[in-house]
Each structure stands twice: as C-alpha cells, then as structure tokens.
C-alpha cells in the first residue's frame, strides 16, 4: 500500500512538471503580453515609431487582435493610415489576411476611398478577386471622389466586373444603390451586365429605385436602350 501511494505521488509530480513546462512554452511571458498590448494600442493611435521598435524586437506583425482581426485590416479599418502604410511595406505582413467578416484590407481601403492604400496593397499583390464580396463591390459602394479611380484601378488589375456576392449581388447593383454616379457609368462602359439579377430577382435598376435614385435608374435604363438593336424599315 505505501508503495502504491509513493508511485501515485511520483506520477503526480511528473504530471505537474510536464504541465508547468506546457504552460511556460505556450503562454506568453509578461514581456510578450506587454508587447502585444503596446502593438495594438500603437495601431489604434497611429503610432509608427512604436510599431518600428516592436518590429525590430521581433514582434509578430501578423499577430491577430483579441477579436481575431489581422493587424493590417485593423489599421485600415481604424483609419490609422501611417500604421497601415508601415504594415503594408513590411514584406512579412500578410496583406490578404481576412477579418472575422471575411473582409481583407483591400476591401476596407476601397470602401473608405483610400486610393493610396489601394495602390500600395495592389503593389504588394493583394488579392483583387475572392469568393463572395470583393474589393470591387466595396469600391462601388463608396460615394467619395476617389471611388472612380479605385474602381478603374481594380478593373485594370482584372477585378471580375460581374462578381457575385453570396446572394448574387454585383458591383453595379451596389453602385446603383449607394455609389458614385461615375462608378455606375464606368462599370457600364466596361461591360457590367445591367440586366443581371440577384437571388431576390432584383436588377441594378431595381436597386437604384429602392434607394430613390431615379437618376441612376435612368442612366442604367438609357444604357440598356442604347444596346438594344434598332429595327430597319
């Protein structure tokens, strides 16, 4: 009996040693935890100097936030533009990492009309096309003055002009409802299908009418009429 107790005690000691080793290996040190907090605080504060110091110290610039958002995505979303540029320029940063809603940094930059970030991300070979919602959908949603240039840039880099969202909504539909009038014109001139329908059976004209944008609806309808063959007598 005493021998059995001794064996059990020995096994417990071995287990505790092994478990302690596991914790030491897998849990971040206090210094690492401090670096982690400083990293995301620096992103939100657009503090490039701190980001540079952490990078020099070997901090992982792809470490996800507590909400599992990629750092670059978070910088663009927070409009920390200097921090975003710093991260884009670092070759080890994954520019295609997606957030919890399956959005990448290029999509958010397009949505916010950040033309310089879109250019920098494309220069880093960021993913222009992806299944589901795409950067072109997001560019088409933006109303600001940079929306046409971003739209053209994405199309020049082979963005699928009639890309379908999960419910088959196209960039033209988004532009008709939310976007810049010039973006609607660009998409039409570059070959977007004005008669495509989403899962609810709605066309881009329907999207425009639902938003009360009769000018957009008429622009699309006029384009459709121009494409129709004219009879001869």
UniProtKB/TrEMBL annotation:
InterPro entries: Ankyrin_rpt, Ankyrin_rpt-contain_sf. It comes from the Bacteria. PROSITE patterns: ANK_REP_REGION, ANK_REPEAT. One of its GO terms (molecular function) is ubiquitin-protein transferase activity. It holds the Pfam family Ank. ANK repeats lie at residues 131-166, 167-199. Keywords: ANK repeat, Repeat. GO terms for biological process: protein K6-linked ubiquitination. SUPFAM superfamilies: Ankyrin repeat (SSF48403). This is Uncharacterized protein. It comes from Tepidicella xavieri.
